[in-house]
Amino acid sequence: MNNENPTLSCADENYTPREKGLLRRDKILDAATEVFCRNGFDAASLQEIMAEAGGSLATLYRLFGNKEGLFQAVIERTSGQMVDKLSSTFAREQDPVDVLHAMGISFLDLLSSPQVGAIHRLLISESGRYPQLREIFIKTAPERNLRAVADYLQSLVDAGYLQLNDCYMAAQQLLSMFKGNYHMRCVLGDTVVLSDDEKKRYVENAVSIFLNGCAKKYT
């Protein structure tokens, strides 16, 4: 029997790792990210992941249940890191232009990073055979980022700073402007290196276009 089949086991929902267990969990996720991105989902071996992380398969099964559960945890951690970084820019007492600039720089840095590009390549290559991986990703990474940005835009609408009918749609359009073609280059394996000045000018232009299109109009 193949004990790496995604449907064979479930994580122990009653198990709450303590500090040492959390460190072990992070090591497993680090190794899993590396192996998944290097080998693909199908060819990734749980034995290889644990050989790199150290520890036993029993620990992996207890924490994540199976390969699919481990992959979901990798995506959730990456998504959480992205949301945390974006959310840290939403200082509502600051000038919204400054907040949007900081958001744009953070998002551009994230989406042009080698690790995010590798994960997206993995999803593109495997989602045809494993559509559940696509659903895991869509429900965690893009959705959480969009909701965080949409909530911030809604706060600007409520304050009378912006005029938008659909903040969720506007969030999609704003983030698409931020990532431009840099993210696609990264997904295709190109190393994207932008100077601080290049990133600043790119993001400032995107924010200017966005605000000119949806700024509150006074008559």
Summarize the structure in words.
- This protein is mainly α and 219 residues long.
- It has 2 domains: 19-65, Orthogonal Bundle (Arc Repressor Mutant, subunit A); 72-214, Tetracycline Repressor, domain 2, CATH 1.10.357.
- It has 10 helices and no strands.
- The chain has helices at residues 19-39, 46-53, 57-64, 67-87, 96-111, 114-126, 131-158, 167-179, 182-187, 196-214.
- The radius of gyration is 20 Å and the shape is elongated.
- It starts with 18 loop residues before the first helix and ends in a 5-residue tail after the last helix.
- The model is unreliable at 5-9 (pLDDT under 50).
Give a brief outline of the structure.
The chain has 219 residues and is mostly helical. The protein has helices at 19-39, 46-53, 57-64, 67-87, 96-111, 114-126, 131-158, 167-179, 182-187, 196-214.
Strand count, sense and barrel status of the largest sheet are: none
Q: In angstroms, what is the radius of gyration?
A: 20 Å
The DSSP helix count reads 10
CATH fold naming of the largest domain: Tetracycline Repressor, domain 2
Number of strands: 0
Mean pLDDT: 83
The total domain count is: 2
Binned strand content: under 5%
Quaternary structure annotation: single chain
Helix content: 55-70%
CATH class of the largest domain: Mainly Alpha
CATH superfamily of the largest domain: Tetracycline Repressor, domain 2
One letter per element, helices H and strands E, the order comes to HHHHHHHHHH
